[in-house]
Inverse folding.
């Protein structure tokens, strides 16, 4: 396990009590405001001394209250990325990066700097001061600084939440490269569902100081009991690009079923994760004919979860689990119940480029 956390901590009116083990990849701490996400992150960072608990990263005990172990933050080989970047304003980009490598083994330094600069595309910014950078550029430098120490774990506290949608879209691919190419493990706080769908390998759901669910991203996000409301609810499926057609359509295959999207900048053979919002999925009996929607996924209902006047339905398909939000009336007319055979009609995978990301692990 990359990270093992067992924590109990009381603030006036708030009690945190969580225990989890995180596999390699990106573990997203997800949950409503005040559920304890930042408190967990702060305890791992060493910014909070927990009342009780033990934290182990890559085999190293960072904190163990039973044995009086508490490594100070600067002795934990962690990279930290904050919401607002927190670069040193009086230092150039290069100096900010070099500050980050302070605790790295001496031999690894020059090579790491070149790799980090290249990977984040910040070579042209090295002599600039943070004040002259855009928000997205600043956040790329902050990611670079976190990487420079060769951390065993990166802690990211809502690293995109201060950015607008375009800047988010600019930064996400870099975070995906950290996850997929450098394979740096991350503990990542977020409350934006599309971001979670893009970046998470594992999702840890917190509620009022408790861990209520931990599991692979695709599993947790497609669980109707935890999927959230509005456009938040959506499932995650893994698809492989099979062909680009001359009429501007990219064909993918998910579990043997074809999916069609407007041309994607990906090569045949590339594996992508797709988020399909529950609000964009209709259900039908049998296999409907003559529809403009291109993506039809036949499956079996294996979860029904009422949400006010609507119902969130989970359909197990060969492509993976898909969620659909329909009205209670439609659910009754269609005979929605566990075991019912229905077809999911995906209306608008096509309109959600931000919902297409690199592979799911
Ligand atoms: N230093 C502190 N002293 C007292 N209470 C605190 C302290 N830090 C956090 N809390 C309380 O602990 C609870 C959890 O806070 P925390 O910041 O971990 O939540 P969060 O899930 O990260 O929320 P958000 O999404 O709003 O950042 C809140 O009720 C908060 O008021």
């Amino acid at each position: 396990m990359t990270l093992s956390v067992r924590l109990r901590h009381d603030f006036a009116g708030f009690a945190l009590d969580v225990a989890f083990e995180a596999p390699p990849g990106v573990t997203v701490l997800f949950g409503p405001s005040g559920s304890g996400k930042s408190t967990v992150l702060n305890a791992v960072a060493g910014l909070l001394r927990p009342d009780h608990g033990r934290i182990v990263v890559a085999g190293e005990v960072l904190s163990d209250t039973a044995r009086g172990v508490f490594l100070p933050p600067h002795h934990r080989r962690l990279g930290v990325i904050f919401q607002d970047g927190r670069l040193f304003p009086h230092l150039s980009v290069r100096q900010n990066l070099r500050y980050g490598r302070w605790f790295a083994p001496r031999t690894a330094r020059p090579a790491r700097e070149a790799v980090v600069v290249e990977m984040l595309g910040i070579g042209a910014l090295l002599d600039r001061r943070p004040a002259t950078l855009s928000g997205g550029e600043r956040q790329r430098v902050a990611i670079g600084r976190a990487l420079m120490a060769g951390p065993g774990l990166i802690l990211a506290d809502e690293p995109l939440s201060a950015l607008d949608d375009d800047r988010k879209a600019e930064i996400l691919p870099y975070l995906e490269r950290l996850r997929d190419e450098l394979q740096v493990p991350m503990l990542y706080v977020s409350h934006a569902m599309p971001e979670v769908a893009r970046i998470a390998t594992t999702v840890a759901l917190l509620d009022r100081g408790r861990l209520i669910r931990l599991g692979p991203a695709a599993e947790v996000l497609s669980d109707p009991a935890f999927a959230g409301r509005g456009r938040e609810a959506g499932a995650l499926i893994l698809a492989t690009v099979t062909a680009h057609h001359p009429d501007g359509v990219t064909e993918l295959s998910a579990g043997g079923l074809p999916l069609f999207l407007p041309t994607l900048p990906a090569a045949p053979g590339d594996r992508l994760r797709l988020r399909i919002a529950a609000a964009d999925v209709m259900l039908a009996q049998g296999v409907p004919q003559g529809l403009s929607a291109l993506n039809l996924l036949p499956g079996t209902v294996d979860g029904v979860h009422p949400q006010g006047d609507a119902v969130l339905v989970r359909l197990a398909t060969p492509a993976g689990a898909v969620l659909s939000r329909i009205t209670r009336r439609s659910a009754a007319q269609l005979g929605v119940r566990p075991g019912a055979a229905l077809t999911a009609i995906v209306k608008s995978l096509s309109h959600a480029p931000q919902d297409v990301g690199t592979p799911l692990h």
Q: What stands out?
A: Residues 3-221 form a domain with the Rossmann fold fold (CATH 3.40.50.300). The chain has a mean pLDDT of 87. The chain has two domains: 3-221, 231-357.
